[in-house]
Write a structure and sequence with these properties.
The protein has a single domain, classed as Up-down Bundle (3 helical TM bundles of succinate and fumarate reductases), CATH 1.20.1300. The chain is mainly alpha-helical and 135 residues long. α1 packs across α3 and α3 runs antiparallel to α4. It has four helices and two strands. Helix content is 74%, strand content 3%.
Length: 135
């Protein structure tokens, strides 16, 4: 779907018309993911507040919180929170570098994007190993 732009050409007006008009790129996908992980981290912060309140409220409430977080859905939430936290951290550092004018070239932006993904995966996996698998 396209309309006539102010320059007189027949061009799409929005980059969000994914399909024949716009191909998603690493930089745009990481930007969208950064925003999504920020929202997810806010929800994770609320879970942490719930845990602190449950701890202060007594053993029964904390046991209920622990049972909820130990369930399959709770474990998935913790896993998502950990990976989101590391991704958001490393991508935030990447954005800070951009703010001071570093790494703005296209090749550098792609390299830093891949480094962000790899570091988030490695650090998230190490954190989850410490949480769940370390004996």
């Amino acid at each position: 779907m396209s309309t006539t732009s102010s320059q007189g050409g027949n061009r799409p007006l929005s980059p969000f018309m994914i399909g024949p008009y716009y191909r998603p790129q690493l930089t745009s996908m990481l930007s969208i993911t950064h925003r999504g992980t920020g929202v997810f981290l806010c929800a994770g912060a609320l879970l942490m507040v719930w845990g602190c309140v449950a701890l202060a409220a007594g053993a029964d409430q904390f046991a209920a919180f622990s049972a909820c977080m130990g369930s399959t859905l709770g474990t998935l939430a913790v896993i998502g929170f950990v990976y989101s936290l590391w991704f958001h951290f490393f991508n935030g550092l990447r954005h800070l570098a951009w703010d001071v004018g570093r790494g703005l070239e296209l090749s550098s932006a792609y390299t830093s994007g891949y480094v962000t993904l790899i570091l988030a995966l490695l650090c998230g996996s190490a954190t989850l190993w410490l949480f769940y698998l370390r004996s």
